[in-house]
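Subgroup meeting minutes
Present: P.N., E.W., G.H.
Scribe: E.W.

1. P.N. recapped why we're keeping a running log of single-chain structure predictions: easier to compare across weeks, and new members can see raw inputs and outputs side by side.
2. G.H. added today's entry (345 aa).
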Amino acid sequence: MHELTNLDLTSPAGWLPLFFALIMAVSMLAYVILDGYDLGVGILLRETADLDQKDMMIASIGPFWDANETWLVLGVGVLLVAFPSAHGVILGALYLPVALMLLGLTLRGVAFDFRVKAKTYHRPRWDRAFFAGSLIASWAQGFMLGQLITGFRQDWPGLLFAALIGLCLISAYRLLGAGWLIMKSEGALQHKAVGWAMSSLWLTAAGVLAISIATPWISPEIFDKWFKFPNVLMLLPIPAVTLGLFGVMVRSIRRLPVRLEQGNQYGAEVPFACTVGIFLLSFYGLAYSLFPWLVVDQLTIWKAASSTEALTVIFYGVVVVFPVIVGYTIFAYRIFWGKTRALSY
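Output recorded in log:
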C-alpha cells in the first residue's frame, strides 16, 4: 500500500497500469457473465432427454456463445502484454487447470459445430461432449478462482478450497443458464428451467459465502480493508444487497410456475437479472479485496506492469479494439433478443 500512496496517478507510469487493470477486470467480468450463462446451458443439457428441448437450449445460445469467449481472449491478452511478470506467475501456478479449461472449451466448440451437422442418431453423442466440455471448463475456472484467492497455495487446504469453489462455480453457471432459459424459452422447457434454477441456488450461495469468508482470512491487509472502522459500515450494503437479491430470486422462482401456467411471462427476467446482480456484487467485493494486488502479497499492478513506453503503444490499440468489441456485442444481443425459436438445420 505504500507504493500506492507514493504514486503519481496523473503521470503515465501511474495511470496506465490502472487503466489496463480496469480493462482486464471488465473483460473478465463480461466473460464470466456472458460465457457463464452458455456454459450453464451446456451443463443443463444433460437434465432433459427431450431432443426438441435440447435443440431449443442450443438455439438459445447459438448466436452468442462464440462471441462471448472474445472477452476471455481480451482479458488474458491484456494480462500477457500489460502485466507480463504477473502473467508468468499466474499461468505458471495454474498451468494444469488452464490446460483443462482450454480442453473443455475446445471440446465445447467442436461439439457445438459438429452437432448441427450430425444426423439425428449421432446428435446425443455431441450433446454429451458439449456437456462434458462445459462441465470441465466451469470447474477449472472455479478452481483457478479458488487458487487466486488463496495466493496459489499448493497445500491440501488450499487445493480443497479451490476444488470446492470449482463445484460452486458450476452451480453458479447452472443458475445463470437456468435464468437465461427461463427468459428465452416457453412451455415445458421454461417450466423445467424454473426447477433447475431453484436446485442451483443453495450451492451458489455457499460459494459466495465461502469466498466472502476466505478472502479476508488469507491476508491481514484485506481483513482490515473490510472490517476496520468505518470501512465495515460503508461496505455493509454489498453483503446486504447480495442477500436481498438471493431473497428476491427465491420469491420469484416460487411464484413463476403459477404465472407460467396462466400464460403470464411477468417476472421471467427476474432470476437472470438477480443472478447477474449477485455476480456483479461478488466481483466488486473480490476486486476491492485484491486491489492493488495481481498476486496477493506478491505483485501489485504497478510492479507487474510493462514499461511505460510499451503500455503507451498498447493503449492506442486497446482504445480502438475495446469499443469495437463492446459495440458488436451490444449489436448481436439487440438483433437476437426475445424468445428463442425452434432450431433449424
